Amino acid sequence: MPNCYFCEKEPREYWGGYWCEGCRKIKNLANVYGFDRVLTILTECCIRNEDQLEKKILARQGKELNPKITDEKTEFYLRRKSDRIKENKENNNK
Ligand SMILES: [Zn+2]
Question: Which domain holds residue 79?
């Protein structure tokens, strides 16, 4: 079976087709939500800049050194201090 035209790795679903199973699902999602929307989601959510990557690496290293650090705590401390203060004020006003 020849390879998928999109990912160029997986075999195509069937002889007359162009896509593998996974890529066809991606294509179907893009047909439903729109290719521009899917591209925006991929760009905004999956592509991280150097600063974001560095924070993620530091967070992982911190967790390895201290197993008591949970993902929630890590996310909390990685958020900007001003955001945390604002969030705490909102919680106190409830
Ligand atoms: Zn594919």
Answer: 50-93
